[in-house]
């Protein structure tokens, strides 16, 4: 019987359920996804070995195994771990297996499977409790057959598409469980789709995400083309998210993605031969909103807040890449720091699509000066307002900022997708937990972006003169009027209604008095 996407997501959900009440929901992904990854690697490797065994044996078989794209030693195989699930040291055995898989496939899987400790009593409880959880976790995945030949695919799909889609779907589900702690690793699929269509990656392009989280945004952008013709770069400061991104790439059969671990602002990972920032054709990002102390990595040391000690103050001269020559963002809000990094990393003719809080559109002081300079340099192309409660981790509405180098016009397109359309219908799907964007809503946004014409209560192409008249304030309501006039109140009708209600109340009270008298009360 074939394995479906639903089978895979069910197994992942069973794994999450096995961890419930033991660890925080925000950490489910750290323990469940690597177990599934080992199952995936084991099943794929076993199937390839079975094919070889039909043609080779002995020394020739062992030699042919060396040519396989990756290796899973017998002691690391999921089946071996499953058979040892009652071992007293099962946590230690899982740790050893994962580290060995990394060591045997270091070029492709370095840093993927060593981010959590399956033998930690601090995380998983006392020995008996921990062993029971790990045994159950292995049992959750044992029935799942992830051999490529057994994956049910639709027309135009390959097995990696099904497994990859299930993996990303569950990242979203884990983000839902994690709540406020999820924003750092997950971008809603609909938002990723909008951004991917906007940057419109072409064959031969270099695609970059400076805060790549689980890598879903990069994959969505790159998948618009044959990924073998696109070079993927990502950097992420959170080690757990780096591991997720690398697993995500591998499962999607993207084996040459360059995912770096570190602080993108203080220590950008990707540079050219001259030591300058590498330039990219397409950049997508869902950066951390209003990151506090974003410049801490630039502190040369010895400067901190305290009596008699000089307080550290970020200055443009401390950045060797000259990203902040147009202004230094406030220390408590790193939004423009990330945006300036992206702008500096963008090649001429390239496009940036970045999610940001609305504050970047109108906050003054240093941010206002930076915003003005970016507009005067004719780099900002569009501002797209999104509905509230769309992102995990925050209920506030966000926007997508689109930047381009080498623009032929100096106007700026504003789109407000957070309100209602001409028919009075919401431009999004209202839901209990997280609002969503449907396919129609996505298409409406992309159509407005491509057509670049005014649409009543939805889109407006603002001239540079308009922007200047608003003192370079980009607050969307200044450009897209979504105000809805309320119906005039008919005072006479209201007064008549009140009079009628008074009569009805008096009649009801009279009846009540009569009933009470009959009862002798």
Notes on the protein architecture:
By secondary structure, the chain is an alpha/beta fold. It has 3 domains: 5-181, N6 adenine-specific DNA methyltransferase, N-terminal domain (Ferritin); 190-292 and 330-478, Vaccinia Virus protein VP39 (Rossmann fold, 3-Layer(aba) Sandwich); 488-521. Helices cover 42% and strands 11% of the residues. The chain is built from 18 helices and 9 strands. It has a 9-stranded mixed β-sheet. Strand 4 (280-286), helix 13 and strand 5 (346-357) form a beta-alpha-beta unit. The model has no long low-confidence stretch (mean pLDDT 90).
Give the helix/strand layout.
Layout: H1 5-19, H2 28-53, H3 58-65, H4 78-83, H5 90-104, H6 106-109, H7 121-124, H8 127-141, H9 159-178, H10 189-199, E1 206-209, H11 216-222, E2 231-236, H12 239-251, E3 258-261, E4 280-286, H13 335-344, E5 346-357, H14 359-362, H15 365-376, E6 380-385, E7 398-404, E8 412-416, H16 439-451, E9 459-462, H17 464-469, H18 491-518
Parallel strand pairs: 1-2, 1-4, 2-3, 4-5, 6-8
Antiparallel strand pairs: 5-7, 6-7, 8-9
Helix pairs in contact: 1-2, 1-8, 1-9, 2-12, 10-11, 10-16
């Amino acid at each position: 019987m074939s394995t479906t996407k639903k089978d895979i997501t069910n197994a992942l959900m069973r794994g999450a359920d096995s961890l419930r009440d033991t660890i925080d929901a925000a950490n489910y992904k750290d323990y469940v996804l690597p177990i599934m990854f080992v199952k995936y690697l084991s099943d794929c490797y076993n199937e390839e070995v079975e094919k070889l065994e039909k043609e080779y044996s002995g020394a020739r078989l062992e030699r042919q195994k060396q040519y396989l794209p990756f290796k899973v030693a017998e002691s690391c195989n999921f089946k071996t771990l499953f058979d040892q699930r009652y071992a007293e040291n099962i946590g230690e055995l899982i740790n050893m297996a994962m580290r060995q898989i990394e060591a045997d496939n270091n070029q492709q899987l370095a840093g993927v499977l060593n981010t959590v400790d399956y033998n930690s009593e601090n995380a998983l409880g006392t020995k008996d409790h921990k062993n029971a959880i790990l045994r159950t976790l292995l049992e959750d995945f044992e029935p799942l057959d992830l051999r490529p030949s057994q994956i049910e695919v639709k027309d135009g799909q390959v097995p990696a598409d099904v497994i990859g889609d299930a993996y990303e779907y569950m990242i979203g589900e884990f983000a839902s469980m994690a709540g406020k702690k999820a924003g750092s690793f997950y971008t809603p699929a609909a938002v990723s789709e909008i951004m991917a269509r906007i940057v419109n990656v072409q064959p031969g392009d270099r695609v970059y995400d400076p805060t790549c989280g689980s890598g879903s945004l990069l994959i969505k952008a790159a998948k618009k083309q044959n990924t073998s013709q696109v070079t993927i770069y990502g950097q992420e400061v959170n080690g757990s998210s780096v591991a997720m991104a690398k697993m995500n790439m591998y499962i999607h059969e993207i084996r040459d993605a360059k995912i770096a671990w570190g602080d993108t602002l203080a220590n950008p990972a990707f540079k050219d031969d001259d030591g300058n920032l590498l330039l990219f054709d397409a950049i997508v990002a869902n950066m951390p909103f209003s990151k506090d102390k974003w410049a801490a990595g630039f502190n040369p040391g010895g400067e901190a807040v305290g009596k008699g000690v000089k307080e550290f103050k970020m200055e443009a001269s401390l950045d060797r890449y000259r990203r902040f020559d147009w202004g230094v963002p406030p220390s408590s809000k790193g939004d423009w720091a990330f945006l300036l990094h992206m702008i500096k990393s963008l090649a001429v003719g390239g496009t940036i699509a970045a999610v940001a809080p609305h504050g970047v559109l109108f906050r003054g002081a240093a941010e206002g000066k930076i915003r003005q300079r970016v507009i005067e340099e004719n780099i900002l192309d569009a501002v797209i307002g999104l509905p509230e409660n769309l992102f995990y981790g925050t209920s506030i509405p966000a926007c997508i900022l689109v930047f381009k180098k080498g623009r032929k016009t100096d106007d700026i397109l504003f789109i407000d997708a957070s309100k209602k359309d001409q028919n009075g219908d919401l431009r999004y799907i209202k839901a209990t937990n997280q609002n969503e964007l449907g396919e129609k809503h996505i298409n409406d946004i992309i159509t407005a972006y491509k057509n670049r014409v005014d649409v009543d209560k939805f889109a407006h192409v603002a001239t540079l003169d308009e922007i200047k008249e608003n003192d370079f304030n980009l607050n969307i309501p200044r450009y897209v009027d979504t105000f809805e006039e309320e119906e005039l109140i008919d005072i006479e009708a209201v007064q008549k209604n009140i009079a009628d209600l008074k009569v009805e109340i008096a009649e009801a009270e009279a009846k009540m008095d009569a009933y009470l008298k009959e009862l002798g009360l």
